[in-house]
Amino acid sequence: MVDERFDVRVQGLLPGMRVTLHALLRSEDGDFWEGFGYYVSDDSGTVTVSKDASLGGSYDGVESMGLLWSMKPIPGSRTGLRYRKNDVQARTDLHISVYKDHLTHSFQEKTQLASAVAERWYMAPGVQRVDVTEKGLKGTLFIPPGPGPFPAVLDLWGGARGLVEYRSALLASRGYVALSLEYCDHKDEVGKPQNVGIEYFEAAITLLRQHPQVCPERVAIFGLSYGAFLSMHMAAYSSVIKPRCIVCISLSHVIPGSGSMVDMPGLIKRLMQNKHYDEEKPQIWRDSLLPIPDDPLKKLEVDRIKCPILLIVGEDDQSCPASESADDMKQIMERGGNSHLLTVLSYPGAGHLIEPPYTPHCQASNFMLADTRSKVMILWGGQTKAHSQAQEDSWNKILAFFEQHLYRNPSD
């Protein structure tokens, strides 16, 4: 599974031999990504990545998964790329090769000493993938193997267009029915773009609760970025949804627009009003939501929420003021008497896009504006090693949080 560690060992080298370990994969868009480390074999002619330090390359130090999380597009690639898995039913082939000496580029032109292919999967054997179109919804349901019933998670991504399934596939592989829901590119019956209201998400939760393989009283919401805002909004204001718990990554609780609950054009307009960038560099959006307003009407009433919340913050988030929002939310919940429900994981050096572990760090990437269909470059932030450590640590704690609140009874 892609969220599991593996070990790379090279044997049969000469003692004290300088080698480069190189990892290469091809995205479904046809782009190549690579990571590499410099090693010196021990007295037995062996390199063990989990024990030996990389002396340079795309990462350094003892990093058993550095070949993956340090990956970048190969030189000459298109700009603004972000690695994302689209077809979660297909494996990802990771090509790992050994080269003599410490190399920096043009690996494909060099002779390999040895190579192997590691197969990585987002869906465990037996997980079902089901398209969802009923009740006006657009999404994908992932169901673990076995009779159930299982706890369930409504999985919401950010403001980018398209349906993102890979986190839901991983959750189902860990024992949760997971519904990945599209809401930013919603259209009515004749194909006209349409904002959705809270009723859309209530229909999604109802679908989950009525599924025969779901424990109806054990449903959570998991949101990233604008999906995190929506998760908190639903928990605070919906009389229908009432989740058992919530996980939010990179959240701003500042109300971004007006009108419908999902006002992406309004949000983008506000973010771009005070953009801090020049034409050659990515846009920085976080300052457009600062300072955190004092007016409570301009923020979510998070003191209304009555379920446990796990809030994950990247302290180098350049897309939203996640740290400032977390501090303000804590104060609001303390005044409301429910701060005991809030757990904050704050990671120095982590950026906005905190994904499942061993995913290549994306510091900046292209972003498609939904209203104009134009493309801009957005700075998400983060330093590669610190961000990658945050991804691994937070994922393990997210799974532990779900296990605590969805599998165990409150009295346990």
UniProtKB/TrEMBL annotation:
BAAT/Acyl-CoA thioester hydrolase C-terminal domain ranges (all copies): 196-407
Domain of life: Eukaryota
InterPro entries: AB_hydrolase_fold (IPR029058), Acyl-CoA_thioEstase_long-chain (IPR016662), BAAT_C (IPR014940), Thio_Ohase/aa_AcTrfase (IPR006862), Thio_Ohase/BAAT_N (IPR042490)
SUPFAM superfamilies given in the database record: alpha/beta-Hydrolases
All copies of domain Acyl-CoA thioester hydrolase/bile acid-CoA amino acid N-acetyltransferase, residue ranges: 3-134
Active-site residues, record numbering mapped to chain: S225 (charge relay system), D317 (charge relay system), H352 (charge relay system)
GO annotation, biological process: acyl-CoA metabolic process; fatty acid metabolic process
GO molecular function list: fatty acyl-CoA hydrolase activity
Family: Belongs to the C/M/P thioester hydrolase family.
This protein's name: Acyl-coenzyme A thioesterase 4-like
